[in-house]
Amino acid sequence: MISPEKKSKSEKNKNEKNMQNVINTKSQPKSQPKKDKKTGSKKVNNEIYIVGAGPGDEKLITVKGRELLKKADLVIYAGSLVNPKVLEYTKGECVDSYGLTLDETTKLTVDAVNAGKRVVRLHSGDPALYGSIVEQTEELKKYGIFAKRVPGVSSVFAVAAALETQFTLNNVSDSLIITRPAGTTLESDQIAEFSEMGVTMAIFLGTQKIEEIMNKVRCPKTTPVAVVFHASWEDEEVIRGTVADIAKKVKDAGIKRSAMIIIGDVVDPKNYAKSYLYGVKQGPLD
Length: 286
Ligand SMILES: C[S@@+](CC[C@H](N)C(=O)[O-])C[C@H]1O[C@@H](n2cnc3c(N)ncnc32)[C@H](O)[C@@H]1O
Hints:
- This protein is α/β, with parallel strands linked by helices.
- The chain folds into 2 domains: 23-150, Tetrapyrrole methylase, N-terminal domain (Cobalt-precorrin-4 Transmethylase, domain 1, 3-Layer(aba) Sandwich), CATH 3.40.1010; 155-267, Methyltransferase, Cobalt-precorrin-4 Transmethylase, Domain 2, CATH 3.30.950.
- The chain has helices at 4-25, 63-71, 84-87, 102-114, 133-141, 155-163, 191-194, 210-216, 246-253; strands spanning 47-52, 74-77, 93-96, 119-123, 146-150, 176-179, 200-203, 224-229, 237-242, 259-263.
- Strand 2 (74-77), helix 3 and strand 3 form a beta-alpha-beta unit.
- Residues 55-56, 81, 123-126, 129-131, 154-155, 158-159, 204-205, 228, 230-233, 258-260 line the site of S-adenosylmethionine (SAM).
- It holds the Pfam family TP_methylase.
- Its EC number is 2.1.1.271.
- Residues 1-42 are annotated as: Disordered.
- This is Cobalt-precorrin-4 C(11)-methyltransferase.
């Protein structure tokens, strides 16, 4: 009979050999990450972490994200929107994924995992918004590598903090639309239609097209608009205006990227109803 320890070692070797074959042949194993038979809990190294770096301020990463960075041997981070101060949490190698193709980042990750390295893929804000994690994880699965996700504070929430407002406010707006304008990777957008709904709209990736966006929206020209550059960074900048004048103000300030557009009355909250949360009339909470 084979001892559990020997069995674990031989299975690990078998796994490693299989993984090598996978890389060589580009076949697609469908197995799930395996438990280490010896400890019963630790996983063998066929997984990576996709971590949200937060909006900029290095203290706005989660504790879990920071711990993973500390242990990482390789950090592949998403360009200029990840504050270099966040990268100081790791002693591992840091590679900027800007300009790398999906195949190139996949190869980098697969090679590192096969070399026994702990890999963190670091995305700005929260990885679930305007990231490319689904395609990345699908590719990695082909090599038997599984990605675990650690959420982050999206820049949209750092923007609300910078504006000292809330996106949902009684009597003003009960909904938040998160969207982006059409561009090279998006044929058409729904900004005009959304702007008729009278709710808060957060527009990512749109600062360069602010004039076009303001000409397109169908809400009153007096609707408050704010543009927040580098929310939570040391050089954060807030520009406030209306649909009628924000584009000029943003142009004058020289802001072209790394900013978010917020359209709606919550930017300048008036006539809102107090929340029932702290009131005497409190009913059942959902
Ligand atoms: C590719 S998206 C990434 C969004 C990210 N996943 C998030 O949750 O914040 C990049 C866009 O997010 C917005 N953005 C990211 N960080 C920002 C910040 N600190 N302040 C304002 N906008 C930011 C900008 O609109 C930028 O063009």
